[in-house]
Amino acid sequence: MTRLRFTLFLVLACVFLARSATAQTAARSSSSQLAELTKKIDEQNTKIDALSQQILKLQQEVGQMKGESVPTAPAAPANVSSSPVPAASGASHVVTRGETLTSIAKQYKVGIDELQKFNHIENDRKLQIGQTLAIPGTQSPTPTSTPNE
User: Fold this and answer.
1) Rounded mean pLDDT of the chain?
2) 37 phi-psi bin (left φ>0, alpha ψ -120 to 50, beta other)
3) Which residue of 11, 84, 107, 128 shows the fewest CB atoms closer than 10 Å?
4) What CA–CA distance (Å, rounded) separates 122 from 81?
5) Do 118 and 48 share a domain, yes or no?
6) Domains in the chain: how many in total?
7) pLDDT tens sequence across 100-141
8) 58/113 same-domain check
9) Structural domain range at position 107
10) Are residues 77 and 144 in the same domain?
11) Measured between alpha carbons, how far is residue 7 from residues 4, 19, 94 in Å?
């Protein structure tokens, strides 16, 4: 009977250790998957920014071919509210052609959601050229490069 209890104890201990090892492996696997997904998201955001710049250039070329002048900063529609005035200690950013919330967030090293919520932007696709965004948690803006027009 004692031998049976000892054997049962050993079996249970082995099962416990096996589950513990599996859980640690799963945690490491989840961590590496998260890092891999984050890297892929950054790569996709970079591609989106590059494509946005290409679209901008193509729009300018088409406008020039048609003999039209391509506006550089159209007025914001009346139904779009302007962004809040930046906090006294925070930085602000004026949106230029081809910029996205993603590119602006990366430039200031803030989260996209954080930037969107801070500026009360419901639809990130309604970002307007000339719109001033308040940058959360920053003291001064990082110098920006503007695309050649």
Assistant:
1) 74
2) alpha
3) 11
4) 11
5) no
6) 2
7) 999 999 999 999 999 899 998 988 788 888 999 999 886 544
8) no
9) 71-149
10) yes
11) 5, 18, 72
